[in-house]
Amino acid sequence: MYKTIIRPIFFLINPERVHHIVVTLVSSVRFIPGGKWLLKKVFAIKTQPIKVVGIEFPNRVGLAAGFDKNASCFPYMALFGFGHIEVGTVTPKGQPGNEKPRLFRLCKDNALINRMGFNNHGVDAAVEKLKKLRRDGVVIGGNIGKNTATPNEDAVGDYLDCFIKLYDHVDYFVVNISCPNVTNLHHLQDKDSLSAILGAIVEHRAKQITFKPILLKISPDLNFNQIDDTLEVLKQYNIDGVVISNTTVTRDNLITDKSIVENIGRGGLSGKPIKERSTELIRYVAQKTNHTLPIIGVGGIMSAADAQEKIDAGASLVQIYTGFIYEGPFLVKRINKQLQ
User: Fold this and answer.
1) Can you list the alpha helix ranges (DSSP code H) found in 62-154?
2) Against a cut of 0.90, is the pTM above it?
């Protein structure tokens, strides 16, 4: 039904507008008597919890960052069977992001290109939502970044600000320095910049009573030497895990007409085209660290078999986003069945 009726209708509408429509529709379930129960009944299955980075996750499947940027709909998205939901990317101050249009479908490739630019309402607004909304057992991750207007040399302050304010309201953190849609953000992936950011937040964590795991989101565009450098920094600061991978700036092996892709312009590519690269990096990091560094695998998961491939490569958990858009909400249930 989703692929034959719902998706064709949605795909007639601007993708960013569809996103807001879906968020509104899903969030409205709280006003429907028995609505939350019905969604759980249809989509959720009994799963075996798994402990990763010291946290017990209800299952292995999560919703990647970017869907719930403002921590406004995570309790309702959890009804589709997600065991964890990553909110954000959150920045210290609210910002509109890049100019529209900034989200594009490549239907022939089961892919998206986005250049959203960390559009969000700011960390204070996210905290208020996290205080107000019930979690109902879902694990919440906080994906943090810097404001576009903040120079890279001042980025540490932005990451630390988000980290401090979100600390009591999320279960784990993901440091996002690899998004290609914020000007010069990728420069923060060099060893000195990364060390400064991670050092500051780890120092703050050491002063807290409760321990919150910190993970780093890695770009698929790094070469293996750069990955090795990153792993050295992660080891130096005892970072708890990695998320592999972010979107890519490459446009390799696309079916969509080249002129259409060129007309879209810059942005991060997600979906099926990055599946193999993501899995390749997961396997490399898992082997390089002797499977001691927890990995959340994300990128190109369009089926239960794709999710299993990420687990077999060395991931402990998986996340979906583009696959959810193309395959529909039952994808979560199919993956959970496969990974049981």
Assistant:
1) 74-77, 123-132
2) yes
